[in-house]
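Working notes for the structural subgroup meeting. M.R. asked for a predicted model of this chain before we commit to crystallization trials. I am recording the input and output together here so anyone reviewing the notebook later can reproduce the run.

Input as submitted:
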Amino acid sequence: MIEKYLGISSDYVIIGLAGLVLLTMILLIVFIVQMAKLKKRYKIFMQGNDAKSLEDTLVYRLEQVDELIEANASNERNIDMIFKNMKDCFQKIGLVKYDAFNEMGGKLSFSLCLLNEKNNGFIINAMHSREGCYTYVKEIIDGNSIIQLADEEEQALQQAIGGI
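Returned structure, recorded in token form:
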């Protein structure tokens, strides 16, 4: 009947279909072997090391992530607190050594300026002479002093502010 419509012998059709069935059987066997290997690997994967299950590992890792998130939040709070405290700490320093009196040598006198972030602080001026050492403190507010500054004190202030 096939010979009438297609002009092909039925023997060729049967041989072709048999070849197709044989090829399908070979592919089926290959897929079954691959599936068995995949199942074996899946069981090994799910068992984990030392009979520890994958679920236990995931739960442990999620707990670690939660701990890290909490530690990070704590670190951020601590950093914010440190930055708030640093605003009031002395961050800027200026130091000028000089000879207060001509008869003295070695530049034993000095002006030391300590300022915070907002340029508030003080200048310590220590003048060394043969009779002794005299120390003065002048308050600095917004980078300025109410009391007039000596040249060395002004230099120390400018160093601290960053002008020199």
